[in-house]
Design a protein that fits this description.
By secondary structure, the chain is of the alpha+beta class. It has a single domain (about 10-170), classed as Hypothetical upf0131 protein ytfp (Roll). About 30% of the residues lie in helices and about 25% in strands. It has helices at about 25-30, 100-110, 125-130, 160-165, 175-185, 190-200, 210-220, and strands at about 10-15, 55-60, 65-70, 75-80, 90-100, 130-135, 140-150, 150-160. A six-stranded mixed β-sheet has the order 2-5-1-8-7-6. Strands 3-4 form a two-stranded antiparallel sheet. A hairpin with a 2-residue loop joins strand 7 and strand 8.
């Protein structure tokens, strides 16, 4: 049990995100329910619709890339992370939520109904091991425990699917805008040029979308 986890209160975790959930409005569609701007599907929300207790920027020691074809976002690529010792860190934002909410976000990200079923492992297992893979190999099926902050575990997720990792593909305009908007919220001192430079490092976007187009999208975000 981590220091701040009392048996009598809901167990909390830091959910560290790096894609569209950098934008708080987008994250709240997973918690409260709703349709994010540019997305083709409504999220039903978590069973517990309480707002995150806190949020803060975080740096993820993983490489950002885009892959797949996801119908919610124009049948284009999604953001994922992977190990790359030579790559530069990924910009992240972490939200302090309950582990039940984290479970329900994982369910929605993998297009499963929020039915009360716990798909992620028990809390003590989440805290006690570095990695856990969900059955069925879904889009976001690789859960990672990447540390702790203030006595709470820091958790994130990415894909374990070899077909996605081997086939980077570009994201749609609205998805890039949501990510750029989230970066602006989380890192207000970053300029548009800094954000463009950061995004253009990502495989799946780099060389797939002209830089002037990315510059335009970031400016409009």
């Amino acid at each position: 049990m981590l220091p701040n986890q009392d048996q009598s209160t809901p167990k909390r975790v830091w959910y560290a995100c790096y894609g569209s959930n950098l934008q708080r409005e987008r994250l709240m569609c997973f918690i409260e329910g709703g349709t994010p701007e540019g997305s083709a599907k409504r999220n039903e929300g978590c069973r517990d619709k309480s707002e995150p207790t806190e949020s803060r920027p975080t740096s993820l020691n993983f490489e950002l890339y885009f892959a797949g074809r996801f119908r919610r976002w124009g049948n284009r690529g999604l953001a994922f992370i992977r190990e790359n010792p030579k790559g530069r860190p990924t910009l992240g934002r972490m939200y302090l939520i309950t582990d039940e909410q984290f479970n329900d976000v994982v369910m929605q990200e993998n297009e499963s109904p929020v039915s009360g079923w716990r798909r992620i492992p028990a809390f003590d297992q989440l805290v006690g091991q570095r990695e856990f893979r969900l059955s069925g190999n879904p889009w976001y099926g690789r859960l990672l425990n990447i540390g702790s902050e203030g006595g709470y575990p820091v958790l994130t997720f990415t894909t374990a699917r070899a077909d996605l990792q081997a086939n980077p593909s570009p994201p749609c305009e609205q998805y890039v805008k949501v990510i750029a908007s989230g970066i602006k919220e989380t890192y207000p001192k970053m300029s548009n040029d800094d954000i463009v430079e950061y995004l253009l490092r990502a495989e799946g976007l780099r060389g797939k979308i002209d830089p002037p187009k990315i510059q335009s999208w970031v400016a409009e975000a």
